[in-house]
Design brief:
With 243 residues, the chain is of the alpha/beta class. It has a single domain (6-235), classed as 3-Layer(aba) Sandwich (Rossmann fold), CATH 3.40.50.150. It is built from nine helices and nine strands. The chain has helices at 16-23, 26-43, 60-67, 79-92, 128-138, 155-165, 169-173, 179-188, 206-221, and strands spanning 6-7, 12-13, 50-54, 71-76, 98-100, 113-119, 139-150, 192-199, 229-235. The strands form two sheets. The chain has a seven-stranded mixed beta sheet with strand order 5-4-3-6-7-9-8, with helices on both faces. The protein has a two-stranded antiparallel ribbon with strand order 1-2. α2 (26-43) packs parallel to α9 (206-221). The protein is globular, with a radius of gyration of 17 Å. 42% of the residues are buried.
């Protein structure tokens, strides 16, 4: 779940400090752990695989993938986030490379990766379909794309929409996704959807996060309504013509 933001007067900023502050809270820690568990469950074993994390932020998913044995690379457009990601990777002794770039124009050749991750990235890009098309392009045939996105119909989204009405530029620009829209987006570029699950069925309250986390996995498997986080896995069909 994307962290709170700071507005510089020039537009929304999601800073490394905001991520760190978010994870220092109970609700931030529980929420991020729950989301990461789902994303990596759908990704499957990463040992020895080439993994690209698109919209890497301060590096948590790329670093976690490397810790699971992947040859991971992070892609991120913001220089401050890149610096924070490199610092975190160095501190962990993992040496994950982080490259500056955007999801709409991924700076890697065709069929470069076995797995592509994109977590809370499509909600902020200008052209989500082009981004997914680029992710498909760099996947090998039979490779897997795992997307994690902000769900549309839940208490978290309602709070963010209220923030947008009150002038929060980040949430004014954000797109929230329904299950149908996310599946349709991925299928339009020719990928085969394998699984689509939800998580974070509790409201944005710390006591609710603590109390309901044990039930969250079950609710996700039952496709319960109200998930604030949606995670989809899809396979690149062999011979797919990305264009």
């Amino acid at each position: 779940m994307r962290a709170p933001t700071r507005d510089s007067g020039k537009g929304p900023e999601i800073t490394p400090e905001a991520y760190a502050a978010w994870r220092a809270t109970t609700i931030g820690r529980v929420t991020e752990e729950t989301e990461a568990d789902l994303v990596f469950e759908l990704a499957g074993s990463l040992r020895g695989l080439r993994v690209l994390d698109v919209g890497a932020g301060d590096g948590c998913y790329a670093i976690a993938a490397r810790d699971r044995g992947a040859r991971a690379v992070g892609l991120e457009p913001d220089e401050r986030m890149l610096a924070a990601a490199r610092t975190r990777s160095s501190a962990c002794g993992l040496g994950v490379p982080f490259v500056r770039g955007r999801g709409e124009a991924i700076p890697f050749p065709d069929v470069s990766f076995d797995v592509v991750l994109a977590v809370t990235t499509l909600c902020f890009v200008a052209d989500a379909e082009e981004s997914v098309r680029e992710m498909a392009r760099v996947l090998i045939p039979g490779g897997r794309l795992v997307i994690g996105e902000l769900g549309r119909w839940n208490a978290w989204a309602a709070v963010r929409r209220i923030g947008a009405w009150r002038g929060d530029r980040t949430w004014r620009q954000a797109r929230f996704w329904s299950r149908h829209a996310l599946r349709d987006l991925v299928e339009r570029v020719g990928l085969r959807v394998e699984a689509l699950r939800g998580a974070i069925h509790y409201p944005p309250l710390a006591f609710a996060a603590r109390a309901l986390r044990p039930a969250d996995r079950l609710l996700g498997r039952l496709h319960a309504p109200g998930a604030a986080f949606l995670a989809l896995s899809a396979e690149k069909i062999g011979g797919l013509d990305e264009r």
